[in-house]
Amino acid sequence: MGESRYEGRVALVTGAGSGIGQAVAVRLAGEGAFVVACDLDADGLSATQKAIAEAGGQASTVVGDVCMPADVERMVAARPGERIDLLANVAGVMDHFRPVTELDDDMWHHVMAVNVTGPMRLCRAVLPLMRAAGRGAIVNVSSIGGLTGAVAGTAYVSSKHALIGLTRSTAVLYADDGVRSNVVCPGGVATNIGRTATPEVPWAFERLQKSFARTTRTAEPDEIAALVAWLGSDEAVNVNGAVVTSDGGFTA
């Protein structure tokens, strides 16, 4: 099972049915955590749970939508015991690279609900548990789209900027309770988020492509998972409110 930085700890991971979330769930379980793995994709969660079990780890799964308050409650309630030591908000969607003039209200609300409101509700739900324990870590997965407007559409970029604000506010307000909050900003990663990344407005995508030439490589999900696991561990005890890029130098 490798390292045991999370032995005896509980981690809640959203988006755990594929991509970065799946890699985070499997890695944390491999380091000793009991993982509450959450996703809308039941088949993906089954694959995640199987991978964890085959490696000797422990996990429960919750098929649910971070946009739904009742599902968020079920995710938090699925923990064993009274603690959640790490919340990893990984679930996210893109916006088909739509600029603001081509953006309808439904897409705006959906992207904001998945990428910002869901993480906020999960933070709100787990923070009382962390404060009672006197410790805890939150790691939100944003994007280089939270640092620049040059990689996606208006809704996605706005949501990922907002997630950084949520992270920083939480870091400041709950540091005295022993809770740390940090955010990871990946560049391109080999995941299935592409299902919401099909360009739908040619002229906007053509303009955005000018920045894509700076891309040096596409990361593997486990490369991002390694960073999430470190930020949530005691090794990062002095890291709070940090915005950590993992983009191969794109934003450099």
UniProtKB/TrEMBL annotation:
Top-rank taxon: Bacteria
One Pfam assignment: adh_short_C2
Assigned protein family: Belongs to the short-chain dehydrogenases/reductases (SDR) family.
SUPFAM superfamilies assigned: NAD(P)-binding Rossmann-fold domains
Name used for this protein in its record: SDR family oxidoreductase
Species for this entry: Paractinoplanes ovalisporus
Gene3D superfamilies (alphabetical): NAD(P)-binding Rossmann-like Domain
Record key words, sorted: Oxidoreductase
